[in-house]
Amino acid sequence: MLNLLKNNSLSCTVPNQSALVVGNGLTASIVVAAIKGVGLDVTHARFGSNSSTLFHSCDNESFITFLDALNEQLPTVEGPQWGPTEIVPSENGFVVTFDSGESHEFGSVFLAIEGALKPAPKDLPAEVTTITPDRPTASVVSSVCFLLDYKEITNPSIGAHSIRVALENQMAGGHSFVLLRQTPVKGLLGETLYEAARLAGVRFLRYGTEPPKIERLSTPIESSARFKVSVVDIIESGEEISFDCDCVFVGANPIIERLPDGFRNLLTEETDQQGFLIQDSVHCLAGKSFHRGVYCVGPSSGCVDLFETMMTAASTAVDAAAWLNFANAPQSEEKMSVTEQCVRCLTCIRLCPHSAITLNAGASRSNVKVSTVRCMECGICVAECPRTALDLNSFLEDGFSSLIDRLKTETSEDAIVVFGCYRSAGHAISEINLPRNVIFFPVSCAGRLSESILSATLATRVKGILILGCHHGNCRSNNGTDWAGVRLANMSKRLGSLFGKVGAISYKTLAPNESARMLRLINNFSGSVCEISN
Amino acid sequence: MSDHNNGQVVIVGGGIAGLATAKLLSENGIPFAIVERSYKLGGHTKDWACMATDNCNRCHSCAVFDYEDFVTSSPHGEILLRHELFTVTRSTSGLRSVGIRCIDSGAERELPATALVLAVGFEPFDPIEKGFWGYGTVEGVMTLSDLNRLMRLDDLNKLRPDNGGPLNLAFFQCVGSRDKTIGADYCSQYCCAAAIRAALRTIHQYPESKVAIFYIDLQIVGKTAQTLMDQAQEKGVRFLQGVPGEIQPIEDGGLQVIFEKDGQNVVERFDWIVLSIGQRPSSSATAIARITEAPLNEFGFFQTRSQSDPVRSPLNGVYIAGSCSGPANIPDVAMNAGKVVSAIIKDIEQTI
Ligand SMILES: Cc1cc2nc3c(=O)[nH]c(=O)nc-3n(C[C@H](O)[C@H](O)[C@H](O)COP(=O)(O)OP(=O)(O)OC[C@H]3O[C@@H](n4cnc5c(N)ncnc54)[C@H](O)[C@@H]3O)c2cc1C
Ligand code: SF4
Ligand code: SF4
Ligand code: SF4
Ligand code: SF4
User: Fold this and answer.
1) How far apart are CA B94 and CA B15, in angstroms?
2) On chain A, which terminus has fewer CB atoms closer than 10 Å, C or N?
3) What value does the mean pLDDT take over residues B279-288?
4) Domains defined along chain A, listed by start
5) What is the pLDDT of residues A107-140, one digit of tens each?
6) Domain contains B207
7) Is residue B171 domain-shared with residue B228, that is, in the same domain?
């Protein structure tokens, strides 16, 4: 396997300058072309099906010219076959260990597998086929029925494609029916296409909660209808309409049949009904996954639109180039310090949401190594290290100590401390005037606030602590904000007896554009704390 | 990859499209200048409210802060607020420079430009334009933009009835979209999901709220769509097919609408009606088109070469980013910015 890689002219001499694309078919080719387009080196490892599930809603002729032009651009790449393989984030890239046991390092990895479409729902007659990207040849003038939104909302690209084919069939002299719950009017021209189809005589029938009934006609005689369709149109008449037709196609959403080995620890395998991979973070945008340098393009992310896939491919390629620039640039400063207190308990390695920490093999002093390019300086590791062996250089533990010292002596009667993540509260605060009794202290992430910091703060003369993290799903460090909640729950069990300040600590979540709400939260908290103590 | 020190890219418009483009250019070592006519960066997205309930509902509005932080601290760029474009100088092979002017002082400047990115955004549809549903005259009718403003200011409580009863509101979808009579026969793409998020956000704050959404077709596209829809149904948001044609103010201060349900006419009263307004071409699109000679399409958005080349203007050296090439939501804009930068990198590499 590795020989293949070595002989492959595409693989690069500087491993971290190269991208690895795992997939097959049109999607992988598009991604490979996009990466080459921004000047990176690509290795293409083949995995999965070669047949494409990319839909397009443009007319057949312009699509064929387009595909021809595309084919000229698309590189033919020889690459290894993807076997049982491991991908492990390294300091500034990914170490991929192939089943031969040999490893190779890449700067970024792309998942570009072709998906599959779910099988047609079982309660439909067996002859009903799923809508695929290719077009049924319109040589025989026939009546065709497209059944969309059956059981679940059809992916809009598949819907738009169906309308296009229905229109073509109608123009060729056939009859087309489209049964749906929501007309897909995707893109700037979606409405125009829908309008054109309607004008050409394509019959759109809209059903409600009552699904259409499709029956296979029992004695199919040559050239006679094969299906009977009955549907209650909720817009036009509210009455049941029945018609016969030659073929019925049903819209089925994409699924990921199998993630290639090695990706399971990098991506979640969970998908929603339309086949999209669900990543529980708002930062997984434009083909990016939560891990920097890992991308997910095309059907594997639920997107079965050809043009959207091209767009995502281009976008991820540029992002990968940016990431490689950054990851390979000489880093001037260490982001973390590790002391000899470390006992290699592995807690930090396990908890770091950005896979930034690795074991420092054979080291005698600091036992773990923090990747300067991967570390996002959340400080979750600092807060959870049982040996307090770690510290963030730009948000030092000392900062908390001096805050606490200050609070021991110089606070007014009703002082409260607001710890806020700099990403959210740090922004929101610029638009409000804080009440006089509030001390705001920006933190790198709500996950940085260890129980010891919170207890020490509470032990001073302050009346209470309000922690403002980012909303769940918007934390830059995934579960950093949730850590605050967890620690607070732990502490509040013990708090009453310890400090006599029950309810004196609270955790809320916030976005940077919620200045007004932030002020309300602070005022409410301040009010409730002072009430308790009075 | 090595730096592209071939001169800078000038971006007109500092909304999320301009910022996302600038970020990716900067990260790839390409110098940029943002020419923004207003006093602030961020464009419309800065006006929208957070739609989080127990968790972030991915409206993506706050993404603008991350982009802005990055771009304003980039060593590769210059940000020119209160500036506008007034000339473009071309060379035989492409662009040479652009002339910009400070709106306040009138001072002019020449910026070298290897590429020009137009990111002048969109205009929210103004329902007063067509006297839609009494917006501006009938009390209680507002736009999604107005609702966002209320939420941003944490003033949602103002929508509660004086007696403290449940908040009672309805959304009208597709206002100023999918409407041939106003030259907007396209779907604005963002509003179905945005209305559902706003409904969820309202119910989250006031769980007793009664919310209905009148729609033509729900366009709930993409990763979070289904989850939103499921949440809405679980929270009792009513989805009603067909947008009523008329809103009547009634004596008790409420709004009465008539709609059809199961073949029957139903009369219902709401306290507030929110018009989910569409995206229209930017007010400065025609002026910019005149200055740059970049053509507009039939809807008034900037034309691009084709479906497969959706970011290059037919005019060499000019790129179209974000919602000024057609209605888009923030994730679309972010993706589109990537495509713009990839096209610029490709084109730069071809010319050297
Ligand atoms: C009510 C409403 C709610 C929305 N909510 C959401 C949501 O929840 N989620 C979502 O994804 N999308 C939402 N959208 C859509 C979202 O606002 C757009 O996708 C996004 O703002 C587009 O960004 P843009 O940068 O292309 O344009 P804009 O935000 O319009 O930015 C354009 C920028 O260009 C500047 N500019 C304009 N003309 C010139 C000129 N001649 N010279 C210099 N500068 C100029 C403007 O000042 C502005 O800064 C919503 C839209 C509306 C109307
Ligand atoms: S958590 Fe602390 S002690 Fe444990 S491995 Fe990390 S640095 Fe060492
Ligand atoms: S600070 Fe956060 S990102 Fe950095 S090493 Fe620690 S846990 Fe990982
Ligand atoms: S709901 Fe929108 S504004 Fe709020 S945190 Fe999520 S993306 Fe940000
Ligand atoms: S997104 Fe929904 S509300 Fe907006 S124009 Fe499209 S269909 Fe209408």
Assistant:
1) 26
2) C
3) 96
4) 2-115+256-328 (3.50.50.60), 129-250 (3.50.50), 337-393 (3.30.70.20), 395-533 (3.40.50)
5) 999 999 988 899 999 999 988 989 988 876 555 5
6) yes
7) yes
B147 and B102 in a common domain: no
Total domain count, chain B: 2
CA distance B115 to A488: 52
- Would an 8 Å CB–CB cutoff place A156 in contact with chain B? yes
Are the C-beta atoms of residues A346 and A358 closer than 8 Å to each other? no
B237: tokens are 């948001």
Q: Is the ipTM of this complex over 0.85?
A: yes
Please state the pTM of the whole predicted model: 0.94
Q: What is the CATH number of the domain that holds B215?
A: 3.50.50.60
pLDDT tens string A478-519? 999 999 999 988 887 776 655 555 568 899 999 999 999 999
Domain stop point among B278, B313, B331: B278
If asked whether residues B269 and B338 sit together in one domain, one would say no
Domain that holds residue B311: 9-121+282-351
Do the chains contact at A319 and B50, CB–CB below 8 Å? no
Give the closest-approach CA distance of B162 to chain A in angstroms.
Answer: 21
* Minimum Cα–Cα distance from B300: chain A residue: A188
Q: Which chain B residues touch A470 with a CB distance below 8 Å?
A: 56
Assess whether B334 and B237 both reside in one domain.
no
Q: How many CA atoms lie within 13 A of B107 on its CB side?
A: 6
**Contact map slice: A 18-37 vs B, CB within 8 A:** 34, 37
Distance of alpha carbon A253 from alpha carbon B221, whole angstroms: 13
Residue B339 lies in a domain: yes
| Torsion of Cα atoms, A203 then A209 then A210 then A211, to 10° | 60
Give all strands of the β-sheet with A438-443 in edge-to-edge order: A438-443, A416-421, A464-470, A505-510
- Using CA atoms, how far residue B229 sits from A208, B177, B236, in Å, is 16, 21, 11
Query: Cβ(B32)–Cβ(B76) under 8 Å?
Result: yes
Inter-chain residue contact A185 with B178, CB threshold 8 Å: yes
- Measure the CA–CA gap between A10 and A25, rounded to whole angstroms: 18
Which of B245, B278, B311 finishes a domain? Answer: B278
**Can you tell me whether residue A4 is helix, strand or coil?**
helix
Residues B140 and B256 in one domain: yes
Residue A509 and residue B306: Cβ atoms within 8 Å? Answer: no
Residue A266 has pLDDT above 70, yes or no: yes
A533 confidence band (pLDDT: 50, 70, 90): low
Both B147 and B163 in one domain: the answer is yes
Q: Position of tokens 């890992």?
A: A294
Evaluate if residue A13 carries a pLDDT over 50.
Answer: no
Any domain includes B198: yes
Please tell me whether residues B319 and B248 are part of one structural domain. no
- Residue whose CA lies nearest to ligand 3 atom number 3: A375
Please give the distance of CA A120 from its chain centroid, rounded to a whole number. 27
Pair B76, B41 in one domain: yes
Q: Residue A5: pLDDT above 60?
A: no
Q: Would you say residue B249 lies in a domain?
A: yes
Cα–Cα–Cα angle for A456, A458, A462, nearest 5°?
125
pLDDT of B2: 38
A208 interface with B at CB cutoff 8 Å: yes
Nearest CA to ligand 1 atom 38: B120
Residue B18: predicted pLDDT: 98
